[in-house]
């Protein structure tokens, strides 16, 4: 969670995501916003990310890419092997994720939905760069959605850096180490994000199959610096820019921190993309029919 907010809310405004998107389009094929929806194959899988910094690595892996506008939403459509995949950035938080998921289900009607992106670790075993495939997702109020995975303990143990467990969805950044530990213990959760429960609930309403893949961007023992946490808590762009300016003025070294986080976010996005490219072709065997 830490990487996503620092990068998306500050560095993206400085043009970092624009540069990467341009590179992504050149590698994957020319994405054309003027392509009509009827001119591209219908995706059987939709992968939902909150932000472009999370989706960039995966979109670079797709072939025959086109970007189409479907009833007001931009959807990147491409091929992963023989499978047609759609990629949609939902925006941050449960409300945005729920709305985008319902739109994707109504407009595209995919067979599979994948909720992907960054997450914060809540247990010591999960380090930055580890991957979580939740078998259930909960919130602090007690809501719960099961995700039936067809993975044995032997398969999980044989995959270094992979964890299966409970994912906690919350409504704000969790940057304090003690709070992360307490949340992990209170909810028996291994990781925390801000969207997956909303995606899961929308999929359950429409009887669509969901799988979630999250990469750990900040481990449980990696705190969010207080000045940067204050910057990210601003509700408006102008407030955030003002807080960012104050942060840089008071601590010039924060600029280096942000650039380092940008590099780590790109690395996390690439690693997440590699894992997704292994999972998506095997969705039929990865999920258990209940």
Automatic annotation (TrEMBL):
UniProt domain Nucleoside phosphorylase: residue ranges: 45-142, 162-225
GO MF annotation, one: methylthioadenosine nucleosidase activity
Protein known as: Nucleoside phosphorylase domain-containing protein
One Pfam family linked to the record: PNP_UDP_1
GO biological process: L-methionine salvage from S-adenosylmethionine; nucleoside metabolic process
Annotated SUPFAM superfamilies: Purine and uridine phosphorylases (SSF53167)
GO CC annotation: cytosol
Signal sequence annotation: none
Species whose genome carries this gene: Bremerella cremea
């Amino acid at each position: 969670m830490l990487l996503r907010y620092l990068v998306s809310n500050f560095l993206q405004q400085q043009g970092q995501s624009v540069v990467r998107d341009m590179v992504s389009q050149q590698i994957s094929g020319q994405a054309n916003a003027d392509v009509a929806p009827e001119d591209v194959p219908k995706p059987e899988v939709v992968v939902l990310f909150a932000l472009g910094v999370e989706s960039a690595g995966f979109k670079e892996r797709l072939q025959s890419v086109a970007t189409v506008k479907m009833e007001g939403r931009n959807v990147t459509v491409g091929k992963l092997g023989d499978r047609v995949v759609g990629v949609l950035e939902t925006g941050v938080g449960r409300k945005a994720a729920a709305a985008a998921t319902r739109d994707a289900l109504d407009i595209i009607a995919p067979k599979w939905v994948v909720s992907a992106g960054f997450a914060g670790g809540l247990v010591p075993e999960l380090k930055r760069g580890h991957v979580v495939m939740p078998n259930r997702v909960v919130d602090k109020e007690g809501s719960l959605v099961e995700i039936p995975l067809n993975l044995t303990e032997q398969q999980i143990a044989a995959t270094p850096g992979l964890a299966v467990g409970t994912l906690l969805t919350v409504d704000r950044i969790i940057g304090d180490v003690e709070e992360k530990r307490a949340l992990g213990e209170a909810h028996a959760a291994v990781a925390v994000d801000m969207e997956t429960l909303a995606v899961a609930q929308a999929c359950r309403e429409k009887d669509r199959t969901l799988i979630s893949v999250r990469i750990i961007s900040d481990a449980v023992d990696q705190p969010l610096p207080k000045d940067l946490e204050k910057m990210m808590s601003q509700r408006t762009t102008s407030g955030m820019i003002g807080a960012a300016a104050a942060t840089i003025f008071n601590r010039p070294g924060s600029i280096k921190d942000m650039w380092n986080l940008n590099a780590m976010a790109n690395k996390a996005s690439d690693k997440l993309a590699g894992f997704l490219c292994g999972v998506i072709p095997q969705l039929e065997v990865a999920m258990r029919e209940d």
